[in-house]
Amino acid sequence: MKRTLVAPSLLSADFLNLKGEVEMINKSKADWLHMDVMDGVFVPNISFGFPILEAVGRLCTKPLDVHFMIVHPEKYINQTAKAGAMMMSVHYEACVHLHRTIFQIREAGMKAGVVLNPSTPVSVLEDVIRDVDLVLLMSVNPGFGGQKFIENTIDKIARLRNLIDARNSKALIEVDGGVQKETAPRLVKSGADVLVAGNYIFKAENPLIAIDYLKSLD
Ligand code: DX5
Ligand code: ZN
């Protein structure tokens, strides 16, 4: 039986109650905590940086899944490793020397993820798919929580699954953006291994129940 991994996205948390939100994640069935770093250049929004990452890293008992929406993410590999990240994901569109960056992330002791914007085809990963631990498909244009899910993602997951199998890759497929009650089962059916969800979890009346629901999908 396939086990769906769930990664709540901290971007939608109540930042005035960050400690309480992380404690809620700690006692939940969530597998990872997803953290979005934005620079106002690669995406039209700014979120949080290392002071928050490090503070959350000290309290959070779940592995940190850090999603960089910034230009030159390679400059921050060591700092991200020091903050205790398990996974460092960088955008294909932001990395000129993606192969080098992937290996530097792994050398720093983290798992390496590559993120594709909705307009980037999975075929660009042909030559690195065996070297990455995870591919994160954006199912919204990156930068904001609470956006509408882009339907093309469902077919895109199937195309990525074919590429992974054809190349004998062990990469996990993660999906980020507009994941909620209705889209989540279809994403899992199409082959997603990891579901990121911000609004659906943190704005829920009971986030623990929202997490349980996503965990129940297979
Ligand atoms: C968007 C971020 C997402 C965001 C998802 O650029 O990468 O992680 O928090 O938010 P929801 O799940 O609300 O669409
Ligand atoms: Zn994200």
UniProtKB/TrEMBL annotation:
Signal peptide: none annotated. Its EC number is 5.1.3.1. Catalyzes the reversible epimerization of D-ribulose 5-phosphate to D-xylulose 5-phosphate. This is Ribulose-phosphate 3-epimerase. SUPFAM superfamilies: Ribulose-phoshate binding barrel (SSF51366). Pathway: Carbohydrate degradation. The active site is at 36 (proton acceptor), 176 (proton donor). InterPro entries: Aldolase_TIM, Ribul_P_3_epim, Ribul_P_3_epim-like, RibuloseP-bd_barrel. GO terms for molecular function: D-ribulose-phosphate 3-epimerase activity; metal ion binding. A divalent metal cation binds at residues 34, 36, 67, 176. It is an enzyme of class 5 (isomerase). Keywords: Carbohydrate metabolism, Cobalt, Isomerase, Manganese, Metal-binding, Zinc. Its cofactor is Fe(2+); Co(2+); Zn(2+); Mn(2+). It catalyses: D-ribulose 5-phosphate = D-xylulose 5-phosphate. GO terms for cellular component: cytoplasm. GO terms for biological process: pentose catabolic process; pentose-phosphate shunt.
